[in-house]
TrEMBL record:
The lineage of its organism: Eukaryota, Metazoa, Chordata, Craniata, Vertebrata. It is found in: Cytoplasm, Cytosol; Late endosome membrane. Its main location: cytoplasm. This is CHM4C protein. The keyword Transport applies. GO terms for cellular component: cytoplasmic side of plasma membrane; cytosol; ESCRT III complex; late endosome membrane; multivesicular body. Residues 9-21 have a biased composition (Gly residues). It is a peripheral membrane protein. GO terms for biological process: late endosome to vacuole transport via multivesicular body sorting pathway; protein transport; vesicle budding from membrane. Keywords: Coiled coil, Cytoplasm, Endosome, Membrane, Protein transport, Transport. InterPro entries: Snf7_fam. Residues 1-25 are annotated as: Disordered.
Length: 234
């Protein structure tokens, strides 16, 4: 068993034991500090690799021993740098998992609060009272609709009169107007002089034609007046 496994199996510091383990916020803070430390270590190693590479170029074949030592150190630094890259990837994965777990915990906690709030609200609700309330609302809506329909219907004022009787009375008025019009027609005076027999017949026909024409014109005027009167009465 490795030392790291023994360390984690042993339970870490006494403070963590007393508190029952670190909180997610504390763990995330530690992980970020570790990431920052390793990032600075990366920068240092990259700088040393550049220096050793420059030294190897400088010595070259003139001083093979110094050049080879510089290349060896460069290889060790590159190995350390590779290890740090792997460690950072592991820490980043662990940090993201812890952040997601913390987020899920907060979400579940808030959902629990909401469920408790809903339960508290529903404690004061009676399903029977809700049904009665909805029934009352439906009945009032029906009453309001009936009132609206009654208001929107046309009032039947004057429908108690018989339309046939009114038309009969209207026809009587029309006939009286026609009779009155016939009385007002002025016929032409009969000539005082005697006329020949045949010309007298022609004059008689002409006289009758004028009388009929005057009666028809008078009747047409009376019919127009009666139509206007009928339209007003309806």
């Amino acid at each position: 068993m490795s030392k790291i496994s023994k360390f984690f199996k042993g339970g870490g510091s006494a403070a963590s034991k007393g508190r029952g383990g670190p909180s997610p916020q504390e763990a995330l803070a530690r992980l970020r500090e570790t990431e920052e430390m390793l990032s600075k270590k990366q920068e240092y190693l990259e700088t040393r690799i550049e220096r050793e590479l420059a030294a190897a170029r400088q010595h070259g074949t003139k001083n093979k021993r110094a050049a080879l030592q510089a290349l060896k150190r460069k290889k060790r630094y590159e190995k350390q740098l590779s290890q740090i890259d792997g460690t950072l990837s592991t820490i980043e994965f662990q940090r993201e998992a812890l952040e997601n777990s913390h987020t899920n915990t907060e979400v579940l906690k808030n959902m629990g609060y909401a469920a408790q709030a809903m339960k508290k609200v529903h404690e004061n609700m009676d399903l029977n009272k809700i049904d009665d309330l909805m029934q009352d609302i439906t009945e009032q809506q029906d009453v309001a609709q009936e009132i609206s329909d009654a208001i929107s219907n046309r009032a039947a004022f004057g429908d108690e009169f018989d339309e046939d009787e009114l038309m009969a009375e209207l026809e009587e008025l029309e006939q009286e107007e026609l009779n009155k019009g016939m009385k007002d027609v002025r016929l032409p005076n009969v000539p005082s002089t005697s006329l020949p027999s045949r010309p007298g017949k022609l004059l008689a026909f002409h006289f009758m034609f004028l009388v009929i024409k005057a009666c028809l014109e008078k009747r047409a005027d009376d019919e127009d007046e009666m139509k206007k009167l009928a339209a007003w009465a309806s």
